Amino acid sequence: MLPPELAHRIAAGEVIERRYREPKTQTKSNRGRGGESLEGLTS
Fold first, then answer.
1. In the chain, what is the greatest distance between 2 CA atoms, to the nearest angstrom?
2. Which residues, 6 or more positions from 26, have their beta carbon under 8 angstroms from its beta carbon?
3. DSSP secondary-structure letter at 43?
4. What is the pTM of this model?
5. Which residues have C-beta within 8 Å of that of residue 2, sequence separation ≥ 6?
6. Distance CA 18, CA 29 (A)
7. What is the end-to-end Cα distance of the chain in Å, rounded?
């Protein structure tokens, strides 16, 4: 697996890219998507 440092950087980079691409939608959809994805993965 990837080291925690690299994984953290990659995750942060993805979030930053998404925020720059769609700042308005990401802020609102971030919470909704998080809940949906968590529920989908768990169930």
1. 33
2. 18, 19
3. -
4. 0.23
5. 10
6. 11
7. 25
Helical (H) or strand (E) element with 38: helix 23-42
| Cβ 11 vs Cβ 19: under 8 Å | no
Tokens (6 digits) for 3: 């080291």
- pLDDT tens-digit profile of 1-43? 677 877 777 777 766 666 666 555 555 554 555 555 555 555 4
Angle at 17 between CA 20 and CA 10, to 5 degrees: 155
Can you tell me the distance from the alpha carbon of 16 to that of 43, in angstroms, rounded to the nearest whole number?
28
